[in-house]
Every structure is written in C-alpha cells, then in structure tokens.
C-alpha cells in the first residue's frame, strides 16, 4: 500500500520513489522466503516483505545512460500492477468518536444533512452548467475568429495564386492554440491530459488517483480543452466536461479549497471519502448532462461506469444535479444567443431533431443496422489497437514535457496540412441554396453559387460537421468525399487521442461513424435507384455514429440513452441499442474498450464488477498479504513511529490486537486503524503517560480528523522527542472495533464480491480463533485477471 506524497501524474512521467509494497506468493506455488516475526517491547510488529516486485526507473537522463547517448527507453510491461495508487475508504470508520457523534445527532440534524446534500447537488449542477457554457462560448468565439481569418485569406489568394500562404496561416493559428493548451497540460498539470473519463472511472471505482480532483486540474482542463478544440485538433469538448463536473463536485462538497487554503467552515460532515465519492459521481453525471443534454444518460453513466454503492436517494440526487446542469447551460446560452427563455440548447452537442416522418426505419433495415454495428465494432477495435501501440510508444519515448508539447504541435500542423490538402484537391461542389446556412463555406475552385463540400467536413468545428452529416439532404456529399474524409479523420483522431492536451474522443468517434454511415446510406440507395427514399443518408449517419462510438468506448446502457436524448427521438431506441450491443460484442472479441486500455496501461488496480470466471479454486489464504504489521491496543509511541517511518513497508491499514494477560494464547483481533488516523494522533500528541492511565490524554474530536482530510501530513513532518517515544498510545477510542473479516478458506469470488460491493480498503483474514493471519487489499484482488491462457497473475511494480 504505497503512500505516495510526491506528485504522481497519470501521464508517463511516473513516480520514481523507491517505495515498496506488499506482494504474495506466486500462483505456481513457488516458495518465497518470508521475513521472520519481530517482537518489540510492548508491541508485536510483523513485516511484509518485498515479494515479486519490480522497480521501473522513470525519467532517466542521457547522462545517466552514456552508452546509448539518448534518453533511456522506459520499459513497459502490461503484466504489471502499480503500487503507487492507494484506495479510497468507502467504508465508514465506526469508531467510538463516530458513534458518539451519530448518537448525539437529533432527527432534525439528520434532516438538515439530507437538505445539505440536495443543496450541494444543486450547486454542482449550476457550476458545471456554467463551466460548459463558458467553454462553448469561448470555443465558438475563437474558432469563429480563426476560420473567418483563414476564409478571407483563402478567398484572397484563390484569385491571385499563392494558396500556400493560406496553408501556413492555418497551420500557424492551429499551432498557436495547441501550444498554449499543450504547455498548460505538460508543464503545469499532466493529469489534465485527455478526456479525464478513465481517471474519473478509477476514482469512482475506489482508486485514489493523485491530483485528479484539484482546482488547478480544473483550470488547466478548461483552458486546455478550449485551446485544443479551437486549435482544430480531431477532438471534442464533451469528454472533459465529465472530469470537470467531478472536480467541481469534489470541491463544492468539502466546503473549502485546499489549493487556495480557504476554509468556508461549511459541509464539514462530508469531509470523508464515502460522501465525497457520491458527490463526484453526481458531478460526473452533471458533466454528461451538460455535454449531451442528456440528464438520464448522465445518471446511467455514473451507474454503469462508477458507483459501487447505489440507492434510491443517491439516484434522485444525481438526477437532480444532471437536470440543473442542463437547464443552467440552456438558460445562459439562450441569453447569449439573444433569445432569453428559448431553451433549445440543452447540451454542448446538439444533434438537431430527427423528425419521425422523414427518417422512419423499416423492419427489414434492422439486419442492415446490425451489420453496421459489427463494422463499428471492427473499426473500433482497430482504432483501439492502433492507439494502444501508439500509447506504449509515448510511454517509452515521449515522456518529457517538451517532447509532449512538440508532438502536439506536430499533430496540429499535420491536421491543418491534411485538411487543406483534402479541400484543395476535392472537386465535390454543391449548390449554395437558401436552406444552406454554411457559416464558413469555401468556394475555392467551385463555380459561383457553389461551395466545396469537403470544406463542410474539415473547415468547421467537429460538432457542426456531425450535424451537417446528420441533416443535410441526400446528394449533399459525394461518396468519394465521405470515403476520403473517413479514412483521414480516423487516423488523425487515433493519433490525437493520448496527446498532452485536454481532449475528448466522443465527437471524433461520432464524426467518423457519421461519415461512413452516410456513405453506407448513399451506397444502399444506389442499389435501388427506383426507390432510394428508404435509405435516407442522415438516418444511416446516426446509426454509423452510434456504431463507431460504441466500438471505441464500449458503453451500452448509458450511450443508448445519451444518443436517444441527444437526437430527441425515442423511435431510434431499438436500433441504437442493437447497434451498440453488437459493436461491443464484436469489439470485445478483439480488443478492450479505449478507456479500459488506458487504465490498464497505467497499471491501475481497477476492480471490475465480478471476479475472474475461473478463480473459484483460489482462497483468501492464497491471495492475502502476510505476515501483517499489527499493533497492540495500547502501543508504545516509538513502535508506531518506527513502523510508519519504514518506507519498505508503507502500509495504510493496521489490525489492532489484544493480548490476554498472563496467558500464552496468541493475540486476537480487536479492531483496525489507518495510517492517516495514527498520524493525526501523533500530531496532536495523544499519549498515555502510563500504560493503564488515561488521565493525561487530551480528548480528540472527529473535527480534528476532518480538518486534516484529505492531505494528511507525512510522518516525516511530525517531530516526536526521545521522551515521547517512551510514552504509550491507547488506540481503543480511535480504531474501528468492527472491521470486516473473512475466514482463510473463503473463495476468491466471495472475497471479491464483499470487497467490491462494500467499497472496502482492507479486509482482514482471520483463523477460527480470531487471530490475524493476513490482510486482503485492492492490489491483492486486482492482480488476478483472465488472460489468453486462463487465469493470470500480475506482478506488483514501482511504476
């Protein structure tokens, strides 16, 4: 259980500290020498040895590797599980302090707490909606300015020649925006890179990803996503909204900002992982709602991707936050567009309304939709495989901030060059009729009264391009245009995801799928020239978009509802559901979903819903960490300080045992205490001068623990004098006297179900006389997974 106090980024710049955590015997039964039990004065301490751990050295400079004369390649092995990630405490610590506070609270006090939860969810919705509104307006302004300048430049040089100047201008403007976003992410807050959905998934799963819900992360995320979308990259602004909502929720629910060092003395009761994680799931749902105008889809996203615990009131509160979020965005955008009260912009992406009469589908089209779902799964698996190998390359070689910024600039320049080249060589000219409200229509070499169709796809923000593919009349796009656009944008989007910029993959996926889906519709209509109306291109563009997105991210339930809500037509519910199911089944056969791949590449101990299917033959005794570091109920302060200071056994949970006086019986379990609690006790000098005297003990309250949450000081910052080391500490009042325990013969699936469903951090393994024989942690369970050759065990590593 590595307790990292240093900054650890989600990106390839990992932590290089030499902390070692626990490991267990290997599956093949090979013997690993265990350290002997050590006894000290009044406390028995059992050390956990360095079992099957691997040290990976990050950030090695070329001076350290003179033979090769270049930055050393960072080794990467997907059979590793990182020790740098801690777990969240989703289980309440029901010690005497907690129980006394709960018993003192009146029914009215509990009612006030429930009202506070609703108020916080309302605030989360309002702030998330305002952030979405700010991002939308800024992107529209900056992108509009950029495209207007480039359009005027192209029109000027089309007449006199010298379009290469227009290309250079386009590339320079793209690079300028991306440079700002790239520097912000790479140098100031690497955790803000990407969409943030894998990090939020991990947080809701119970993994403490360092710095993921900080205020600084939010600021960098918002500025970064504005710059990357305005910079013309193949990205969307919808994914980062989910991360932004989670950060807002984590901040608002605590009633203070640790970054700004301001405490508003509000919501102090919620300063613990249990409550915070519930609010973060509400924030993620509010982010989905603001992005897509899909409040129900937001609730289902949190349910499908995150929360372990779920109850009716939590569902209601999350739905409330989602609804407030989409209403806030709608309300302020209506004011911005000069139409107060016209609530027609429920989300950042507006697919436009699909009218049932014009694009109804027939039962004989369902098999065609299912085939498109299979194609979406295949293309999604290809996308994910390419991105997987690209990400491994980045982890190995592009791990310095300056290199990451340079790669982002290269992608921005290449995107501009490819877009310009495709538009330049396209001869797909369409008439500019009265129903065409092209904002940035390019005439280029087309005749007067016509515009370049390829420019509609490339010379636009991705959201507008998606809407044009959904709703333009048949004949608006040439099949060759759509084919070339799909091919080029597929590889651009694949290359772009994983850069050191804040960016989502939702909109690029929808755009790729809408392009090849519309192409399918055009080709189907060409096979039946007598009645081409049934194969409406817009309808097939929607199905293709769903298939492609489902093939990449592999979400089913929430994505179905998001697509239905975003299109405003429940008629397509069945086809979209079938398409997403088939895309997931086909894609999973070849490769995992994109978010799961990135979670695995970071070696995060992520627990899925169920234990591996073939793990019934494993028991708690085989998976647990042992021997365990235990404390006596009344323990010597010097012993506690020594254990907490020992970096080779950096654990976070310690069983508390009691020894029967004048007896040879072994010590028995009587509770569990956390590292963070012990640090607070040492900080406040809660010592007993004599082992059986409590006269000099200062009364500590839960407020002292809540004030220290979540950034507990490291043990090195606490000074304990030599005299104080001889004092005693009574843990009775502060330990959890009722920790969850399992017998040593419990099967792995049963242990997994208990651990996962209750959101535990530590699970004590005891024998039939209640002696501690081991401790099960998240990493012990996450090590086992189904591979190509059956059940496999991952190694624990200092990545």
From TrEMBL:
The keyword Repeat applies. Residues 1-43 are annotated as: Disordered. The chain crosses the membrane at residues 118-139, 167-188, 218-236, 279-302, 314-336, 366-390, 402-425, 480-500, 506-528, 540-564, 570-590. It is found in: Membrane. The keyword Transmembrane helix applies. Keywords: CBS domain, Chloride, Ion transport, Membrane, Repeat, Transmembrane, Transmembrane helix, Transport. PANTHER family: CHLORIDE CHANNEL PROTEIN CLC FAMILY MEMBER, H(+)_CL(-) EXCHANGE TRANSPORTER 7. This is Chloride channel protein. It comes from Maylandia zebra (zebra mbuna).
